[in-house]
Write a structure and sequence with these properties.
Number of strands: 20
Strand content: 15-25%
Shape: elongated
Radius of gyration: 39 Å
Distance between the termini: 163 Å
Length: 684
């Protein structure tokens, strides 16, 4: 019998319906099992680990917040403050652990309505960052970036997105019109790392700003009313160029040391020594920051703070400089500086036995306007052709090389004519007539041709009129080595950055003939500080002592006005000039005659002759070019036998020849020494 198809389909449907309750039961079983597992897990978390998770909710973070302390001061040798600190009101910002760019932006906008800051150093990038710190601006630009790169196969990283955002804002000038005052506040806030304190405004905070911000402090997370310190110079602002400068919130950290200082924990606008001693002794002057234990809750808000360490003010630096004497030397130079093409005047007064510098006065002059500017560091960074002051060193080298003996130092002052060169004569013997002179007379009269002949002998040639120059190949180096043992042509090693070694001219080819001029100081250039070390070597009997201006380091004691000396400078001997006593006597006798002799051609002048106690000296004159004119450098080295006093000075660019300005200035500086540094010894 044939089966009805309709009945077959109906039976299949009935069988499927019969299986449905089985499937539902399986699903219900699985659901019930999962629910039981969830209940068990919740019970475990609530009963067994509930306390742990509650503690996490209430967890506190403890971190150390660092604060600023006063910078160390500079004292002169007598204890006078020459670079101190002036306290002033400031607005500070401490960056919390949960502070975001958006939070800082909102705070900066609110603050900008109550205070103004200097916007000269507002960077274009900070304006862009300020613009993007807005949530709305950031999201808007992000959408544009995402849309532009939707076809990229690799998803953009957060850094790439940020770079594209910055580029987009810059390209479309979207940040050009942001509020500069608010953006500058934002820039300074951004310069602080987590829990460090930086200045929003460290000077010129008005009473109105203090009052307004003080009333609304609770609205400004991390903002506080604080104190900053700026440098003041009780003994005169001239000391600023000597001790150096310190950056402030307007200048920010120096660009050339930015990354190094940031790595050391400095904030972007934290004060730091920027030149001279302030820079060189930064680690000492900075001191140690205060430390406050800050406790923050899970929401990032500060719950409590406790001072753990009050900080330590920077150590103080005591100089060998005598402030009153420094000011006196500075005034003597300024008052006696000639006009015309003169470029300046420099003088260093030093203790030849210790190397301690009593005064380092300097004046730079703009010959176009006549304006004078204090420039004490010109003593160590202005290289000058000094002239005949080097002759004692040349004489010492001649003794050492055995080309002359102390028993017979006589040579003829005469016109020197080497084949292919111009004739050289002494100023007092222009005719070049041969006149026998000994070493002392050659120093007193400053005989150029005497020392040219000595130089030639040192270089392996005895002078013969009209003969070609026939020096040894090492002649230049030999002579320079002789001058170098007195420190001429090398850095002194003074404890101030920025020293120059001077300039040494070429020695080959056509320059070979310059050797003759090198022998009486008319070729290589030196600094005034080098001259001071050089004359100190003569004064102390042959020891090359490094000059220094820092005498000691003092540390303030807690809860006391007293200070503890933690370091004291000691003499640093850099070399020795070996001469026997008779050779030293010859050199010193010649220098005595320069300052006190009665020869008709004496170069010392009446100003030196009048000094008591007597000084020993050597004058110098070098021919130069300044402003297109023929000019001269007048120089001088001098010391007081048996006393801890030696000095050197140089006046470049003078229009008058041998007018005695060097002797006049030197005499006043030496007299001032007895007035301000130590009492004049009884010479009776």
């Amino acid at each position: 019998m044939q089966r009805n198809p309709y009945l077959e389909d109906r039976d299949k449907k009935n069988n499927a319906s019969a299986n449905l309750p089985v499937r539902l039961n399986i699903l219900l079983g699985i659901s019930l099992t999962l629910m039981i597992a969830l209940i068990v897990q919740l019970a475990f978390l609530t009963i067994k680990q509930g306390a742990y998770y509650q503690s996490e909710v209430n967890r506190n973070d403890e971190t150390i917040e660092k604060g600023n302390t006063p910078r160390g001061m500079f004292y002169d040798s007598t204890g006078r403050v020459i670079a101190g600190n002036k306290a002033q009101a400031a607005i500070t910002f401490t960056r919390g652990t949960s502070v975001t760019g958006l939070t800082m932006r909102q705070t900066a906008i609110k603050l900008s309505k109550l205070m103004t800051v200097d916007t000269k150093r507002l960077s274009e990038r900070s304006k862009v960052d300020f613009y993007l710190a807005s949530k709305a601006n950031n999201e808007k630009i992000s959408k544009k970036i995402t849309k532009a790169h939707k076809d990229d196969k690799i998803a953009l990283t957060p850094d790439q997105i940020n770079n594209y955002q910055v580029a987009y804002v810059q390209k479309h000038h979207l940040a050009d019109h942001v509020d500069s005052n608010a953006a500058m506040i934002f820039q300074r806030m951004s310069g602080a790392y987590t829990l460090s304190t930086t200045f929003i405004k460290e000077s010129d905070v008005t009473n109105n700003e203090l009052a307004e911000i003080g009333e609304h402090l609770s609205e400004f997370p991390g903002i506080k009313l604080g104190t900053s310190w700026s440098r003041q110079y009780p003994e005169g602002t001239e000391f600023k160029s000597l001790v150096g400068t310190v950056t402030n919130e307007a200048t920010g950290l120096p660009e050339d040391r930015l990354h190094t200082l940031l790595a050391q924990g400095y904030s972007q606008n934290e004060p730091v020594g920027n030149s001279s001693l302030e820079k060189g002794y930064e680690s000492i002057l900075k001191g140690s920051s205060s430390q406050t234990l800050v406790t923050t809750g899970s929401d990032g808000q500060v719950k409590s703070s406790q001072i753990k360490y009050n900080g330590q003010a920077g150590d103080n630096v005591k100089l060998t400089i005598n402030a009153q004497y420094q000011n006196a030397v500075q005034k003597i130079l300024e008052d006696n500086l000639p006009a015309g093409d003169v470029e300046g005047a420099y003088a260093t007064v030093i203790n030849p036995y210790t190397g301690g510098v009593y005064a380092m006065g300097g004046v730079s002059r703009d010959y176009a306007t006549g304006k004078k500017t204090a420039n004490p560091l010109g003593n160590m960074n202005a290289a000058i052709v000094m002239g005949s002051v080097v002759k004692p060193a040349v004489l010492a080298t001649a003794f050492q090389k055995g080309v002359i003996s102390q028993d017979n130092t006589v040579l003829s002052d005469q016109g020197i004519k080497i084949q292919g060169t111009q004739e050289i004569t002494s100023y007092w013997n222009k005719a070049g007539t041969p006149i026998p002179v000994d070493a002392q007379t050659a120093l007193e009269r400053s005989s150029n041709t005497y020392f040219v002949q000595l130089g030639m002998k040192i270089g392996g040639q005895t002078y013969s009129p009209g003969a070609p120059l026939g020096l040894r190949a090492d002649a230049f180096q030999t002579l320079r080595n002789g001058l170098g043992q007195f420190g001429l042509g090398t850095k002194t090693g003074i404890d101030i950055d920025g020293e120059t070694a001077g300039y040494r001219g070429p020695t080959t080819g056509e320059a070979q003939g310059k050797y003759l001029y090198e022998s009486f100081g008319q070729y290589d250039s030196y600094t005034t500080l080098q001259l001071a070390r050089y004359v100190s070597t003569i004064a102390n009997g042959g020891y090359l002592v490094a000059p220094h201006v820092v005498g000691s380091v003092l540390q303030s004691q807690p809860n006391s006005d007293k200070q503890k000396t933690v370091w004291t400078a000691s003499p640093s001997v850099q070399g020795q000039v070996n001469l026997d006593s008779g050779e030293w006597d010859t050199i010193k006798s010649g220098m005595n005659r320069v300052a006190n002799g009665s020869d008709a051609w004496n170069t010392g002048g009446s100003d030196l002759h009048k000094l008591t106690p007597h000084v020993y000296a050597k004058t110098g004159t070098a021919e130069t070019k300044t402003n297109g004119h023929d000019t001269f450098t007048e120089s001088m080295v001098a010391y007081v036998p048996g006393q801890p006093m030696a000095m050197a000075l140089a006046i470049p660019g003078m229009n008058n020849y041998l007018d005695g300005t060097n002797g006049k200035i030197a005499a006043q500086i030496i007299d001032a020494y007895w007035k301000y540094v130590e009492a004049k010894p009884d010479t009776k």
